[in-house]
Design goal:
4 domains; Rossmann fold; globular; 46% helix; 608 residues; Arc Repressor Mutant, subunit A; single chain; 27 helices; 6-stranded parallel sheet; binds zinc ion; alpha/beta; 7-stranded parallel sheet; binds adenosine-5'-diphosphate
Length: 608
Amino acid sequence: MRVQDALDILKSTFGYREFRHHQAEIVETLVNGRDALVLMPTGGGKSLCYQIPAMLRDGVGIVVSPLIALMQDQVEALGQLDIRAAFANSSMDVRAQRQVENALLAGDLDLLYIAPERLLKEHTLNLLSRSQLALFAIDEAHCVSQWGHDFRREYQQLSVLHQRFPGIPRIALTATADARTRKEIVTQLDLRDAAVFVNSFDRPNILYTINEGQNARDRLWRFIELEHVNDAGIIYCLSRKKVQAVAAWLSAKGRTALPYHAGLSDETRRLHLQRFLYEDGVIIVATIAFGMGIDKPDVRFVAHLNLPKSIEAYYQETGRAGRDGQPANAWMAYGLQDVILLRQMSQESDADEQHKRVTWSKLEALLGLCEQTSCRRQALLSYFGEQLDAPCGNCDNCLDPPETWDGTEAAQKVLSCVYRAGQRFGVNYIIDLLTGKPDERILRNRHDGLSTFGIGTGHTAAEWRSIFRQLVAQGYLVSDMVGHGTLRLTEKARPLLRGEHAMQMRRQRKPLKTKESKTVSFAALSGVDSQLFEKLRAHRSQLAHQRAIPPYIIFHDKTLHEMAQQRPRNENDLRAITGVGEKKLIEYGAGFLHIVEEFVTSLNVPES
Ligand code: ADP
Ligand code: ZN
């Protein structure tokens, strides 16, 4: 293969200047007829790895994908680039199916997307054996893993492709990082001779922020108001009730915020998803039921109003932000109640002991990440076995290092107070004790006579809650499942009480003040450029609306961003902009050039 051919397609069809990461090598591997296994994070650019070889090799590239909802979107996007693509799934009527089959047999397709259950049908396999095939791409390859959250039985039968079509190269792709899954993919799909490409799982464009937090909603609002006035985002909550409440609250504040959870009708969910994809600036408030298969590239923030279950879940959920590689925020607020609740859930479940231990240690790792005072990204990557040598400079702890203080004495006060009161009470009661509040229950229990009554007047109740949170998070205190959150000391508490250990605590961060925005986002456009950006965005919206396609299928934000800065004056200028290939130049070029010209002229007209 000539590398130049691949580069030509990259430029003229996709409008991109150069390959990223291992893309060039992967393309070359496939074009030369060898299998490949590709591990790359979300947004890394996996699709090009099989799309370009499918165009370079004779015949059609067959793409196996579990996400029927996405196929249409992708085929639409490919059509915009003049690539001949189709999909085959169960939602089609017989006539449409015939049409696709005929195109396949006639060699009129570059790419065909098929759901695994359909591919495995004898009818389909038979059709394929009568067609010329360029390659097989197995997307979301981690679905073969029984241990993963996306297990699909049919995926395990995909080794049949190798048996029936031994000469056709296969590429398996996934954004799941761990070693066990990787091994399973290799064995289940029979990929022993495949070239393996492992990318860093870092998502450098995502800024991680974890708030310890009272007033989570106020903080969230300030964050949205400050950094994401016009942006699309996802907000995760634990319960359906909270989802509804948060969506209503944001709507009252004037944002388009739509709820999404398993309790809503299919129709409502479909509609909300549709609006999220087709309109600019929609916020989805969701339980974790929302996410798998959301391929929207311009989600600018993902916020958590509750703790996710594990670091894996956190990485995956936050990973839905910034697929287009532009700056994005992962923002979380979590408090004492979250910690207590999750701790309880991990004890309570009726899973076997080993499973409980696993859940527990995953939670432990997540809490570690939350309470951590050094770089979050380093910790996150190290959890996935990757090492980042220097602090990242793009997380809250790097940008605004947390203050710590010696909390040993405060911790001792809490622990002895819990102990003296007989380990039968919850947080609020103990805080009342510490701060010497003689309420009814305390008087009834005669706890105003305890030596620890009122020894904690040096901190406010809010400060005590933060101290409790850190003690529970770090496992000095556990809250009991049966006793409605009554607190108990653990073994770990003893050396701390005896003064053999010291404990550093984080000081509560103050919420951001206006003007303190940290993200280098589109706001980084100078005032004039951002006016033009908004004009271009409005034009794109209009085009998308006319064609009933999502705006990002016309151009990504990144493309509009470059247009706003470079102000192209003719087709050649436009060609130099990322994401402008020949087909889109013809289809949309004139319209966007016109907007730019109009804008430039308006700038030059002196105001009277
Ligand atoms: P993944 O499937 O790995 O999540 P995609 O294939 O959807 O990622 O690519 C993510 C984004 O990056 C897309 O908008 C894609 O067009 C863009 N992209 C991919 N490769 C390149 C490249 N070489 N140069 C510029 N943009 C790219
Ligand atoms: Zn950092």
